[in-house]
């Protein structure tokens, strides 16, 4: 059967001219997040064809390239040298060299320094194009079993306590599915913080994606906190958290038929302080704390 080619698409067997590496262009090349077979044919061609590779970790990337028989001059480009090195890379691009940017894993620009060099290229009018592939966030979202139609990518939460709490407070009423990245040694704290800010929502913990020990734990925040009281987190995690959907959740919530006053009392009688009870009630109902204070007429606690 003969196939009619779509003139808008680029086919793998297209001539050298159409697929050639363009001078003076930065290629964002996505690398595997765990399964080396996920390095695309085009990624290999671009890595082999560019003048040089900028890598977050040159040793790591040299090993990856060596696996595919590719040897290329490399420069490092990472969080702590991105300012000066970004300028140097852009100077070389402006002089007509082509460069492939690779980060430790996944899609350059997603929670890694790739973002900055693209900004710099945009400012200097340097062409940037992408060789897309696996991204941990999107892979996890599609496996989560949660709503995928609307989502918000939050990446790593800040470790600054005040800023973290403020951000989580803002997110607590967001009805989109939320995506977080987390390192194993910080997972327990983050789960506890998410539970406190969001209440007991669904979460899918997506661990070691595309690797041998890939695991998707579909549970709730409360159960996840209990689970990791008993086991140590291992490997890389993406956390997919159900968004605030007050209408759906409220119908089945234990407090659905309670007045706001009864709801706050419920928490106080279970041992919470008045302030925490108001906070928990506001979180359950997806409304600001002040609204609850007003309703139960307890007033804001005085300092
Ligand atoms: N640019 C990457 C991407 O496209 O996903 C993300 C880089 S960010 C520095 C690294 C974080 O991504 C990890 O801490 C983890 O949260 C997540 N991650 C990367 N690979 C993963 C994997 N195989 N399984 C689960 N999470 C992963």
Describe this structure as you would to a colleague.
The chain has three domains: 26-134, Cobalt-precorrin-4 Transmethylase, domain 1 (3-Layer(aba) Sandwich), CATH 3.40.1010.10; 137-245, Methyltransferase, Cobalt-precorrin-4 Transmethylase, Domain 2; 253-298, no CATH class. It contains 13 helices and ten strands. It has helices at residues 16-19, 41-49, 58-67, 82-94, 114-124, 136-143, 161-171, 187-198, 221-230, 246-252, 260-269, 274-285, 289-296, and strands at 26-29, 52-55, 74-76, 99-102, 128-131, 151-155, 177-182, 202-207, 215-220, 237-241. A hairpin with a 7-residue loop joins strand 8 and strand 9 (215-220). The longest helix is centred in the N-terminal third of the chain and has 13 residues, at 82-94. The chain binds S-adenosylmethionine. The site of S-adenosylmethionine has 23 residues, from helix 6, strand 7 and strand 10. S-adenosylmethionine binds next to helix 6, strand 7 and strand 10.
